[in-house]
Amino acid sequence: MPVEWLLIPFAYLLGSVSSAVIVSRTLGLPDPRQEGSKNPGATNVLRLGGKRAAILTLLGDASKGLIPLLIAKSMAVSPPLFAAIGFAAFVGHLYPVFFQFKGGKGVATALGVLLGFAWPVGLMALLTWIGVAALFRFSSLSALAAAVLAPVYVWLWLGSAELVVATLFMSMLLVYRHKGNIERLLKGEEARLGAKRL
């Protein structure tokens, strides 16, 4: 097996590391899997521990998607393998082997993957999130909007079928992981950014 193929399991294992759990334990915060929304992600950590903890979680989760792709770029892997490596990191965050396959929703890790595909694509997705969040104050709605538009951004900027397909699958999984949020949005019960979830 060519050594570059080992980047797929490496990306998955790195994705399986929970930044939210590590940051929360380090800072003496409640376990985000047990408190708040019970999602080990930056938004829940923001509610439980404030901005510093949330930023550290966001950077950690995004790095999980970015680092394997930076390594892959340095090895000049093929486009299909490059796409698979990014997708593996994302899946690792959603279904982590270290946490009984119960992970987060994948927003920050998906951002890291998109930045790894091409930084302008990641930037466009991030600006989409920021714009929707500024208008509506819902983290989940912002993530859903960015997820829907991400494959379009990849196609327009890169034109790579492999990367578009990988991004489509990431987007579908991300929307699926937000099904509870979608239900609450439709009922008018979703917590806004800055609100404490009881």
Would you give an account of this structure?
It is a single chain. The chain has 198 residues and is mostly helical. The protein has helices at 7-15, 19-26, 42-49, 51-74, 79-94, 107-117, 119-136, 139-157, 161-177, 179-187. 70% of the residues lie in helices and 0% in strands. α4 packs antiparallel against α5 and α6 (107-117) runs antiparallel to α7. The longest helix is centred in the N-terminal third of the chain and has 24 residues, at 51-74. The model has no long low-confidence stretch (mean pLDDT 95). It is found in: Cell inner membrane. The chain crosses the membrane at residues 3-23, 81-101, 113-133, 153-175.
What topology does this entry show?
Elements: H1 7-15, H2 19-26, H3 42-49, H4 51-74, H5 79-94, H6 107-117, H7 119-136, H8 139-157, H9 161-177, H10 179-187
Helix pairs in contact: 1-4, 1-5, 2-4, 3-4, 4-5, 4-6, 5-6, 5-9, 6-7, 6-9, 7-8, 8-9
SS element count, helices: 10
Determine the oligomeric state from the structure: single chain
Largest sheet: none
As residue ranges, the low-confidence spans are none
Q: For the record, give the distance between the C-alpha atoms at the N and C termini, rounded to a whole number.
A: 50 Å
Q: How much β-strand is present in the residues?
A: under 5%
Helix and strand run = HHHHHHHHHH
Total of domains? 1
Average predicted local confidence, pLDDT = 95
Total strands: the figure is 0
- State the helicity in percent bands: over 70%
Radius of gyration: 16 Å
Briefly note the structural class of the backbone: mainly alpha
What shape does the CA trace take? globular
Family: Belongs to the PlsY family.
GO molecular function: acyl-phosphate glycerol-3-phosphate acyltransferase activity
Transmembrane segments: 3-23, 81-101, 113-133, 153-175
Main location: membrane
